[in-house]
Each structure stands twice: as structure tokens, then as C-alpha cells.
Write a structure and sequence with these properties.
The protein has about 350 residues and is an alpha/beta fold. It folds into two domains: about 5-95, Udp-n-acetylmuramoylalanyl-d-glutamate--2,6- Diaminopimelate Ligase, Chain: A, domain 1; about 100-315, UDP N-Acetylglucosamine Acyltransferase, domain 1 (3 Solenoid). The protein is built from four helices and 40 strands. Strands 8-11-14-17-20-25-28-31-34-37-39-40 form a twelve-stranded mixed sheet. Strands 9-12-15-18-21-26-29-32-35-38 form a ten-stranded parallel sheet, with no helix packed on it. Strands 10-13-16-19-24-27-30-33-36 form a nine-stranded parallel sheet, with no helix packed on it. Strand 39 (about 300-305) and strand 40 (about 310) form a beta hairpin. Homotrimer.
Length: about 350
């Protein structure tokens, strides 16, 4: 896709200084700009690059006045950073503006779908699936029986949605995600073997949820595994059966949450955190990366460590951890003197 400076200025409400018909078809950092690229200048420490960049168009703040000759066409806006972000969002919308049903694909009996569906090739849609308006399902995806998908959702290539899953409006599910696979439920037998416990619940994603690539969310044993409104999950996260994650909580990569644990609203959980099952994490909790959570946490706590404890206490203790060899040596010397 190509855009002229004039078109971009129209989208951003900006002023063109230079050639209004010059075209761009790619994005670049200002220091790496080449012909045909669009860049921006927001941070003053990068201002020197405006005089050497080969970018065809550069978005700048309206207060910017060049002190040397420049070759790039300028688009002056109120806030260059915000305008560039707006342009990225617009570009992404245009890039994802697909519709129609590609072949080969399978749509089973009883399926209903709204306007402007995009269904990529090699997709399978199971029986009695309900799909809303403006939904995009990219190639090689599987949607099981009786799944419900709301309006304005995007499911990228290779997503697997098991039967009975319910997905709200404005959700984004990235490649490799598996939603609704069996929870890890096995009962030990007297002979040392394990018998599988049927997992007959489902998964519910409320509105405005985003699930990162290769994350897995298990179906409940009974009832539902629930991801509440506005939750953002990073790549490679494991959510076990009957877990509930509260509104607007964000969780970083490689975190694992064991079965039946409840996470509150507005929590921030760092990468590689492990959380045991059947506990409650309160609202507005902050958990630092690589922490191990073995008991319930009240509202508003910030914790770190494995096993985790209060963040302030952990920082104080860490000073002593680092000095432990010296402390031990001092104790040995003290013992010798006393004896």
C-alpha cells in the first residue's frame, strides 16, 4: 500500500512542508530511513537525524523549524508521537481489512455469521457456531461445535478454539493459541496409575480480551474458566481449569496459573510467575517476575521472590543475601574470639 504526504496529512490533520505528492510504502526509524519510508521525530535527542535521514516523509511537531537543509518532506502535527501511533493503528486496520470466505474451508451445519466475515483458507467451523459482525478468522484455524464469537474479533492463523467456548466482542487471539483444551485433571488409583477426570466445562472470554501467541487456556472441569473484560495475556501463558482472571489484569509471558485460582481486577503479573491452585489473588496486586506464589494475596500488595513475600521486605533481605558469605565469615571469626 502506498500513501502520499497529502493523504497522510489528511488522516492526521497535519500540514505538509515539501512535496505533497511524494509516496511512502513502509515505516522506518528516523536514523534508518530510506527512500519510500515514513518516519517521525518526537524525541529531541534524535533531532540531528532529521538532516541526514533518507526517509521520504517525516512527521514532526508543529513547533519544529529546521536549522539546516533537509531532503525529507515534513508533516507538521500537534504531537508527532501520538500522530505516528494513530497512523500505525490506521495502517493496521487497513492491512487487516479483509472479507470473504476463502476455499478450501469447511462450514458445518447450523453455523450463523454476521456481516463482513473473513474466513481464511483451510479453516474448519464446527456445528452450530455463532459468529458476529466484522470477524476475521485467518487460515488454518479450527472452531469447535457450539462456539460463540462476538463482533469485531480477530483470530490469527492457526488458532484452535474447542467446543462450547464463548468469546465476547473486540477480542484478539494470536497464532497458536489453544482455548478450551482439557484441564489437567487425573485421579490416582491404588495401583499407582491415574484415571482421567472428564472436563465438561467451558472457557468464557469477555469483551476486549487479547491473548498472545501460543497461550493455552483450559476448559473447566465443571462450570467455566473465565477471562474477564479487558484482560491482556502475553505469549506462552498457561491458564488452568476453573481459573478466573479479573477485569483489566495484565500477565506477562511464561506465567502459569494452576487450577481454580482466582485473580482480582487490575493486577500486573510479571513473566515466569508460578501461581499454585485454589488460592485468591486480590485486586490491584503487583507480582514481580519469576515469583512463586504459594498462598493467597490480599488487595494492593506488591510482592517478589520464590516463595514470594512482601516486595519491600524482599529488597531488604536481598542486601543480606548478597553479603551472606561475609556475614558467615564474620560469625566464624566472632566464634573463634569468644572461644
Amino acid at each position: 500500500m502506498k500513501f502520499t504526504a497529502e493523504q497522510i496529512a489528511g488522516i492526521l490533520g497535519g500540514e505538509v512542508v515539501g512535496n505533497p505528492q511524494i509516496e511512502v510504502y513502509k515505516l522506518a526509524k528516523i536514523e534508518e530511513g530510506t527512500a519510500g519510508s515514513l518516519s517521525f521525530l518526537a524525541n529531541p535527542k534524535y533531532q540531528n537525524y532529521i538532516y541526514t535521514t533518507q526517509a521520504s516523509i517525516t512527521i514532526v511537531n508543529h513547533t519544529f523549524e529546521p536549522e539546516q537543509p533537509i531532503t525529507t518532506t515534513l508533516i507538521k502535527v500537534e504531537d508527532a508521537y501520538k500522530s505516528f501511533s494513530k497512523l500505525l493503528e490506521y495502517y493496521n486496520q487497513v492491512k487487516l481489512m479483509k472479507s470473504g470466505i476463502e476455499q478450501p474451508s469447511v462450514i458445518s451445519e447450523g453455523v450463523t455469521y454476521g456481516d463482513h466475515l473473513y474466513l481464511g483458507s483451510f479453516c474448519y467451523i464446527g456445528k452450530n457456531v455463532k459468529i458476529g459482525n466484522n470477524v476475521k478468522i485467518y487460515p488454518n484455524s479450527f472452531i469447535g461445535d457450539n462456539v460463540v464469537i462476538g463482533d469485531d474479533c480477530i483470530l490469527f492463523a492457526g488458532v484452535r478454539i474447542y467446543s462450547e467456548t464463548e468469546i465476547g466482542n473486540h477480542c484478539t487471539i494470536h497464532s497458536g493459541v489453544i482455548i478450551g483444551s482439557d484441564g489437567f485433571g487425573f485421579a490416582p488409583s491404588e495401583d499407582g496409575t491415574y484415571s482421567k477426570i472428564p472436563q465438561i466445562g467451558n472457557v468464557i472470554l469477555e469483551d476486549h480480551v487479547e491473548v498472545g501467541a501460543c497461550t493455552t487456556i483450559d476448559r473447566a472441569t465443571l462450570g467455566s474458566t473465565i477471562i474477564r473484560k479487558g484482560v491482556k495475556l502475553d505469549n506462552q501463558i498457561q491458564i488452568a481449569h476453573n481459573v478466573e482472571i479479573g477485569e483489566n489484569t495484565v500477565i506477562a509471558s511464561q506465567t502459569g496459573i494452576a487450577g481454580s485460582t482466582k485473580i482480582g481486577k487490575n493486577c500486573m503479573i510479571g513473566g515466569q510467575v508460578g501461581i499454585v491452585g485454589h488460592i485468591t489473588v486480590g485486586n490491584n496486586v503487583r507480582i514481580q517476575a519469576q515469583s512463586g506464589i504459594g498462598k493467597s494475596i490480599p488487595d494492593g500488595e506488591t510482592i517478589q521472590g520464590s516463595p514470594a513475600f512482601n516486595y519491600g521486605d524482599w529488597n531488604k533481605s536481598y542486601v543480606h543475601f548478597r553479603n551472606l558469605p561475609k556475614i558467615v565469615a564474620d560469625l566464624d571469626n566472632l566464634k573463634k574470639k569468644l572461644s
